[in-house]
Design brief:
single chain, mainly beta, 7-stranded antiparallel β-sheet, two-stranded antiparallel sheet, 9 strands, about 15% helix, secreted, Snake_toxin-like_sf, LY6_UPA_recep-like, CNF-like_PLA2_Inhibitor
């Protein structure tokens, strides 16, 4: 998994066993933070020695979603590559709940992925299709810069 938050890029490689529904590629872009999950899955013993391809930022695809910037969730974000859904989530950290919005790929919005992610962030996740379908609203909490690395904990723990 590759993630980028606040200009800092990280790459996390994990070699382990997954169920077939945990083996997918996808991306999440919240504007201030991005995560790309690249997996290579195989079915024979000790077959996971190869590295996954490096992360490359895809070109804009024309889709637009709302994103949150501090307390303002009315800013728009241009989605990239396979990010064909808009996403909204409520992330709980202690007693604070922060709203995050952005672009996501279909695989991030799949039922099994959102169930896993919801369990870790302690909040609700919803996805929709169509430009700016993740309606804008304001929030009183500050954005959490750990959302993208948190996703790596969900999928690679």
């Amino acid at each position: 998994m590759n993630s980028k938050a606040g200009g800092l890029e990280t790459k996390r490689v994990l070699r382990t066993c997954f169920t077939p529904d945990e083996c997918f590629n996808g991306s999440l872009n919240l504007g201030f933070s991005q995560a790309v999950i690249n997996t290579m899955c195989c079915t024979s013993d000790l077959c996971n020695s190869q590295d996954v391809p490096d992360w490359s930022i895809s070109s804009p695809n024309g889709k637009k979603c709302f994103q949150c910037d501090e307390k303002d969730c009315t800013k728009t974000l241009t989605c990239n590559g396979n990010e064909d859904y808009c996403i909204s989530a409520a992330v709980k950290a202690g007693v604070t709940t922060t709203k995050v919005k952005g672009c996501a790929s279909k695989t991030i919005c799949s039922h099994s992925a959102t169930e896993q992610l919801s369990a870790v962030i302690g909040g609700e996740i919803s996805c929709c299709q169509g430009d700016l379908c993740n309606r804008a609203s304001s929030t009183t909490a500050h954005l959490l810069l750990f959302v993208a690395p948190l996703i790596s904990l969900v999928f690679f723990s």
